[in-house]
Amino acid sequence: MDTIPSPLRPFCVMRDRIPADMTARVSARFDVTGFDAVNAGESAAWAEALLVERADRDRLREAFHRNPFLTVELGEGGDEPAALMEDWSGAPAVDPGFYLSLTTGTAYGLQCAVLVCDELTRRGALTAEHRPNVEMCLHEAIANAIVHGNLGISSAAKNQPDGYRVFGQMLRDRLGDPDIKRRRIDIFCRWNASTIAVAVVDQGGGFDSANTASATDGKARSGRGFVFMRALASRVAVTDGGRCTVLHFDV
Which residues pair with 14 in a beta bridge? Predict the structure, then answer.
């Protein structure tokens, strides 16, 4: 493996160290067996990865251009590679595909949907024709994961008097909490000749996906994200108790 100068550090994850129960959970979360199972079975034994310190747009683009399977931001507080290896040993090494893990504090300040779509385009998975729908859905899914998932802020806050001011103050307060700020947003992309699948995962408390609106009027202050996603994506699945949204796009 090439030597990568700090703040980009390499590490690898061995498939044969993954406990069977962890593999089963990850396979269920990301529908590994249901999406091009043959390629998944032929994946390399090692998942190449980069650990990224102080992630920003330019540093993430640099990491992406090295073509790792995993790009994982180190959180503030001295996360060690050994601990991250334990956390990420369950990531299925699939080709083609890539996995991005960011802290909530970083993801909130980045245009994550743009970065992911740029990388899907660079790797030849996404065309200009299909990009607007993919990017819009990703924006909504990532915003939900950050605000409602990891920050734990309900859209109901906007419905009270002076709601948008209250909502903004809640955002600032939660992002000022170091523990909440370190929670992770994980984005897992894979594709074949006909489909792109993207999973967006948070570490929040989850929600009952049966209660998400199928339609909303133009006056609603919340609930529009899933309406947009269901209208623009080919399929939308919510798993892991509301913490994982999987978007499928026929291309």
Answer: 46
Instruction: Tell me how far apart the alpha carbons of residues 139 and 155 are, in angstroms, rounded to a whole number.
Output: 16
Spatial CA neighbour of 58 closest among 22, 21, 7: 7
DSSP result, 39-86: HHHT--SEEEEEEESS--HHHHHHHHTT--SEEEEPPTTT--HHHHHH
* Backbone phi and psi for residue 175, each to the nearest 5 degrees, phi listed first: -70, -15
Q: Return the bridge partners of 236, or none.
A: 247
State the pTM of this model. 0.79
5 confidence band (pLDDT: 50, 70, 90): very low
pLDDT for residue 92: 52
Q: Using CA atoms, how far apart are residues 8 and 52, in angstroms rounded to an integer? A: 5
Closest CA to 119 of 46, 200, 74, 57: 57
